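Need the bound structure for zinc ion, inputs here:
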Amino acid sequence: MTSVPELLVLTRIQGGWDLFQTSYVEAARTLRRNPGRLADLWAERRRAVALHPLSDDLRELYGAQIDRSRAAMARLAPPLLQRYADQAVPLIEHSWLRSIPLRSSAVEAARVVLKELSLPDGEALATVSSPPGGGPAGRTAKTATGFRILATDDGTTSSLAVLLHELGHFLYEADPGPGPTEGIVHYVESEAAALALGRVGFDRYLAALPDAGERRRLWASYCRTEAWLNHFYFLTEAAELGLCEPPPGRLDMLYLRDTYSSTVGYQFVYAAASSLMADRPEQLVTRLAPAGGPGRARGHFAPPWHPEPAWHTAATTAAGEEMTSRW
Ligand SMILES: [Zn+2]
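Answer from helper R.:
Posting the output first, comments after.
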């Protein structure tokens, strides 16, 4: 790597976002019933891709991630995707997940998990409220005084899984260390924190249930599928940008990822974050604890463009290791 670009440019796609304010299923239905709408969205995406700027540094960064994502996809297959009309769509099969009732709310279940992991729970959980307009997609929003979590708590285990992901964002964003908060390192580390706490925290929740074995196995499959999708979407976007061949296989309804329908450029973040946390989610979660532990600093999770190539070793991990204990 010659030098590290600080900024990741995101090219906005107009017109796709409103579809995902309700639910993914509703969005899928709308697109099925309106082929013209789908054609318009693709045309808009092609326009945005054509305008998207890529510096030489970014091309280099993408190139390294393309290699990692191809290797990860080969390890992670086969995915646990839902199917519609005999085609795989990018929605992860989670009917088993919905069948587990929470004793109280997602917020209270998350509080127990955070305590077990020795992470602070009070401030983050006090900020949780429903996203304006509803919808299943959670997010962590910056406010004038800090951050707040917008996530639906409907008392289901699905909402717990979403909430734990957002708590990972919150704990990272609340104390990210020095440096710009809009750069590549920040984006990737925040997403890696969210993926790691989602992975480890929900596994911790399941482990406390009776007969946890089968559910934990399904959860591991779920997480592998999520990682597989992150790499698939990144390679798809990189191919659109002329940087590589498209990934093998095909998914119907690519538009069901909200960031893919609203921006060009962000799929790199998910893929790089998946690679960053794949072999050590517990380690990343430990580093979300307040200072007093190893301390927090920019590049703390050691993404590949920082010294100490801990992450490079993750990319060359023997096949199967990630399957057994990680996503
Ligand atoms: Zn996230």
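Comments: The CA atoms of residues 279 and 322 lie 6 Å apart. Confidence is low (pLDDT under 50) at residues 305-327.
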